[in-house]
Structures are given as structure tokens and as C-alpha cells.
Amino acid sequence: MTLTHKLDDIYKLGSAEPQECAWNFGKVFARDMKSGLEHLCIAASDDQSHLLETLLEHMPQPMWILYVLVVPRGEGEAGRYQSTEPITRHEARAFLSRFRNYLETDGRHNLWIKSEDGPALLVFDRHDLIYGYGPIDEWTGDLQKLGWIEVERKDISLPDPHSHHYHAIFDDDAREVLSYTQWQHSPLQEQDY
Known about the structure:
The protein has helices at about 50-55, 90-100, 100-105, 135-145, 170-180, and strands spanning about 1-5, 15, 20-25, 30-35, 35-45, 65-70, 80-85, 110-115, 120-125, 130-135, 150, 160-165, 185. It is an alpha+beta fold. It has a nine-stranded mixed sheet with strand order 11-4-5-10-9-8-6-7-13, with helices on one face. A four-stranded antiparallel sheet has the order 1-3-2-12, with no helix packed on it. A hairpin with a 2-residue loop joins strand 4 and strand 5. It is globular, with a radius of gyration of 16 Å.
């Protein structure tokens, strides 16, 4: 894991030491267990939308999107926004493409994409980590082809302390996400923070 100084660039996740700068995990991933379920923890410091689009290839269609607005900046109420209709892989890619810059560089949200049938689930959280449940072997192959290196889970950690960045230039995108499709709104859950 390395620190990358981006004085003029915007970023989602920062490290406060030795001075505020963007945090970069490097291209690493690990297998992990949570509640008895094996999954991948993928460090994704940049081009996360492209990575998600690649991983979607192994997810059965149709899919659901859950957009989790943790820290609003006036665009709407904090909470979970679940698509009211399942979508195709093509529609999921279109969503990722349309909101690429916002999703990758603003820290106010998490994004879940879940297959309607089966366990395939991708969770892109506000810490630039992607959690993958489902076709782990296929995803591992994709990651290795893209240059990711498998490490131990303990080797993927957040800086302590760290910061989240919410950028005014993405306020319009944040509003557009909430009007992009029909959503069913529900309150945040503990794991969303």
C-alpha cells in the first residue's frame, strides 16, 4: 500500500498522515470469510467502474442495484435506494458508465449490484473496496488477468486515521442518480456506515 499525492486532483478516500493525500491500496485482492461465506475483498483505488463492468460478466441476469446514500449534500435523504425493477447487465453497465466519475471519486455512497437468482453480489463501498460474493474463481481469474495480485486479507487495510471526501462538483450527479430510475427508499442500516 502506498500514498499518492494528488494536490490538484479530487479523490474519495484519503490518509491524514504524514499529510492529507489520496490513499492507494495498489492492485491487490484477498479471499475472506464473513458469516461463513467466502468472498473476495478487492482493493480498487482507481478505475473501479471498469473493474465492476468486468466482474458483472460472471453474474446471472437480471440484477438489482442498491445505491446507499450515506452522507447527502442536499440531493436527497440519506438511506438505501433499491431499484424497483431488476435490470440487465447492459443496463448495469450503462449506470456505471454514466456515473463513473461520481462513483469513483466521491465518498458519500456505497453501491451494491446483486443477481436476482443465486448468490452473486458485488458491493463497492466508500472505502474503495469491492466485496464479491458468488463466482469467486471466475473473478479471481479476471483480477489476475487485469494485474491484481492476491494477498492475505490482513494486507488490505485502511489508513488510520482516514478521510472521506464529498465534492460539490458532483452534487448534480448525486441528484441525477436519485432521478435516474424508480427507487424504493429505506433507512440506512448499521453496515452502511
